[in-house]
Amino acid sequence: MSVRRLLVGALVAALGGGATQAIAKPAKKPSKHRTARKASAKKAPPRARAVKLGTGIAWVPLDALAAVPPLTGTTGAPAATGSGGLTVPPKSTGPAPGDSTPPPGSGDGPGPPSAQAVGVTVDDRTGYSARLSRGSVTTGSVTVQLHNQGEDDHNLRVVPTDHAGTAVDFPLTGSGQNTTKTLVLTAGSYRLFCTLTTPVNHETAGMAATLTVS
What's the pLDDT score for residue 201? Predict the structure, then answer.
């Protein structure tokens, strides 16, 4: 083989190898930023949905909205917050349907009868006097209390004046002291007075009063 032919073959082989290397050159790798954007787009959670609550707006995840109906909020009492951050309307405290029982204290029937009491205050500091806390009561049980506001001892007698009856006597009561008795009085007029007669007759001197029972 001639030297010229050998040179031509070597040149052709060199050109063919360069073309092969150019074809076999590896493809350019994708950008790291592009790969990160694709990965974050695949992993991004579902977007939240805006829900109106009263006068404001709250963002609630879509997976939470899938489990409960849309919320519209309430007016009046503040709503309670349940599990998961969802707003729960307050429960009604009214009576159950069909319940006709009135609440306690709403009845308009008569209450228990009130106890009747009469205070009798006797005083001898500026003369002799007897004052009643009230001038009339109704028939039945009546609590009578003698209160001695004077300086000396005094007693008390209760006597019916317009009908038959038995007199009731209270013992001597010291200055500043009280004596109490419960009497059963029928309708009529009663005189209440001190029975002492020294140094003067206490009754005629003014230590007396009249109680009316009706």
Answer: 96
Q: Which one of 44-48, 68-72, 75-79, 80-84 scores highest in mean pLDDT?
A: 44-48
Query: Is the CA virtual torsion 201, 204, 207, 208 positive or negative?
Result: positive
Q: Using the CB atoms, write b or e for 63-97: b if 16+ within 10 Å.
A: eebeeeeebeeeeeeebeeeeeebbeeeeeeeeee
Q: Model confidence over 108-145: pLDDT tens digits?
A: 555 545 679 999 999 999 999 999 999 999 999 999 99
Rounded to the nearest integer, the mean pLDDT of the chain is 73
Model confidence pTM above 0.90: no
Instruction: Give the class (CATH, top level) of 116-213.
Output: mainly beta
Domain boundaries in the chain? 46-75, 116-213
CA dihedral 62, 67, 68, 70 (to 10 degrees): 30
**165 versus 181: which is more confidently predicted?**
181
User: Residue 120 burial (CB < 10 Å; 0-12/13-18/19+)?
Assistant: buried
Beta strand segments in the chain, E: 49-53, 56-60, 80-81, 87-88, 116-123, 129-132, 136-137, 140-148, 154-160, 168-173, 178-185, 188-193, 208-213
Look up residue 108 and give its two tokens.
């308009």
Distances in Å between the Cα of 183 and the Cα atoms of 5, 36, 118 are 158, 102, 11
- Residue 169: helix, strand or coil by DSSP? strand
